[in-house]
Automatic annotation (TrEMBL):
Gene3D superfamilies: 3.30.450.40, Winged helix-like DNA-binding domain superfamily/Winged helix DNA-binding domain. It comes from Kribbella rubisoli. SMART domains: Trans_reg_C. This is GAF domain-containing protein. GO terms for biological process: phosphorelay signal transduction system; regulation of DNA-templated transcription. GO terms for molecular function: DNA binding. Residues 312-377 form the OmpR/PhoB-type domain.
């Protein structure tokens, strides 16, 4: 059945059903349920246009503060060009069905204006009856509404497909993504297209949420650390658990009522909540019990076997485990499984692989060394790479060179560690060259990085006195490097 024939048949069914004729199987269940909701809300099938339209100033205010504003670029990239070429328009609504953005074919926008399919109009089911946006918001899943499936007769010349977009933090409905067009332009891939766009938008929101979580942890971890070893947690403003101590004693989310200073933890315990500038600090009532933390020393520089020393016990590390510990050392506020995955593998990774490796690593190192929400080192930790970085920041180049045994995990191809390695090598090399000091340059020349550096030996040859015993060795090395 072609589109025109389908529209004609739907129009006949529409007249028959609304006229009180019982027709088995028509309309389809999704549409029948939507008609019932719309009619129960007193929507008139002969309505001329949506009864609720807000002014431009109000639309601008709502746009400015709406979460979907942040993902407009990905929605435009996914939908606008296709909509324009196919004589459609792309529409984005808020959770109440108000159209916040509309883009696409200029001619179709002019046609849409005639039925108030434009910014500021509310296209919820209880305002304008069955339609793509309103019905997708009502049922919480992608839908396509074709021709006379719309409750309001004036919209029968249109077809629309829409998909809801949810907040990855709270799961709440944020709005809907819709592609609408005249009946003649309908395409069977419309539902798949808007579904993919909604999923991309949710993915982008999840990435932004992870970045915000990392910033919140970095700025507020000191409040949790200040509890010593007493049980506590750092929560987001929505109650999601970002970090805990001790290990794994809370669910992923807690309900924090407005103004509450005590909350039920769901297992018979009660916690105290303290409002921070961003998020909450949760701790347990009662005296704090301080326990000594195990010590962890990491040796990650140079060409030798990377090692971890836990309470005097030396443990040889595989490259992957050394990479994980290096990243946690360099990010003391912690990383999620997804963040570790990206830093270890790039876009090709799998968080499940990271979680499995973390489980094995925690068993290897023992209790009290690693935490899980997020993954972070909770032992008293020192590491050669961070000691070198600290010495360089403080301008203590001799100390930095004495600790610098070579590149950071030279065999690692992890994207984040390659950047850290290159930055550290470049910083210490540049610092040595800038001193023009024979002793400093010689000290750097004894490291694996400096030993093959032509510019280092050229600088040494230029500044070493000819009677210096090191001069002959420098000349010989320089000749080999130039050859």
């Amino acid at each position: 059945m072609d589109q025109r024939e389908q529209a004609r048949r739907l129009s006949e069914l529409y007249d028959e059903v609304l006229g009180g004729v019982q027709i088995p199987g028509a309309p389809r269940a999704l549409v029948a349920a939507s008609w019932e909701r719309s009619l129960a809300a007193a929507v008139d099938p002969e309505l001329d246009q949506p009864p609720l339209v807000v002014d431009h100033e109000m639309v601008e205010t709502l746009r400015e503060n709406h979460p979907l504003r942040a993902v407009l670029p990905v929605l435009r990239q996914t939908l606008t060009t296709i909509a324009d070429e196919a004589s459609h328009i792309m529409i984005i609504t808020d959770a109440q069905g108000m159209i916040l953005w509309r883009e696409g074919s200029a001619e179709v926008k002019r046609q849409a204006d005639r039925i108030a399919l434009s910014e500021g109009a509310v296209w919820s089911e209880d305002q304008i009856g069955t339609n793509g946006m309103g019905t997708a918001l009502a049922v919480g899943e992608p839908v396509q509404i074709h021709s006379a499936e719309h409750l309001v007769r004036r919209i029968h010349a249109w077809t629309c497909a829409a998909a809801p977009v949810h907040d990855p933090d709270t799961g709440k409905l944020l709005g809907a993504v819709d592609v609408s067009g005249p009946l003649r332009t309908v395409h069977p891939a419309m539902v798949a297209l808007v579904t993919a766009a909604a999923q991309l938008a949710e993915g982008q929101l999840k990435v932004r949420m992870a970045a915000a979580d990392e910033m919140l942890r970095a700025r507020n971890m000191r409040h949790l650390t200040a509890l010593g070893d007493a049980p506590g947690a750092l929560l987001t403003p929505s109650g999601r658990v970002l970090a805990v101590q001790p290990l794994e004693w809370l669910p992923d989310r807690l309900v924090v009522p407005d103004g509450a200073d005590r909350i039920d933890l769901g297992d018979g315990r009660e916690g105290l909540v303290e409002r921070l500038d961003e998020g909450y600090l949760l701790h347990m009532p009662g005296a704090r019990v301080r326990r000594s933390r195990p010590s962890l020393q990491l040796k990650l520089l140079g060409s030798g076997q990377p090692t971890a020393i836990v309470g005097g016990r030396e443990i040889a590390l595989t490259l992957r485990r050394a990479e994980v510990l290096a990243l946690l050392l360099l990010h003391p506020s912690g990383l999620t499984a997804e963040q570790l995955m990206l830093q270890l593998y790039g876009d090709e990774g799998n968080p499940t692989t990271v979680r499995a490796e973390m489980h094995r690593l925690r068993n290897l190192l023992g209790s009290g060394v690693l935490d899980t929400k997020p993954y972070r080192i909770i032992a008293d930790v020192t590491g050669d790479v961070t000691q070198v970085q600290t010495a360089l920041r403080e301008g203590n180049l001799h100390t930095a060179l004495s600790l610098y045994a070579g590149p950071l995990l030279a065999r690692s191809d992890a994207p984040a560690l390659r950047l850290e390695r290159d930055e550290l090598d470049a910083t210490i090399r540049r610092s040595a060259l800038d001193t023009r000091s024979p002793d400093v340059l010689w000290q750097f020349a004894q490291t694996p990085t400096g030993a093959e550096d032509l510019e280092i030996f050229e600088s040494l040859a230029a500044v070493l006195p000819t009677d210096d015993p090191r001069h002959a060795a420098v000349a010989a090395r320089l000749a080999r490097l130039v050859d």
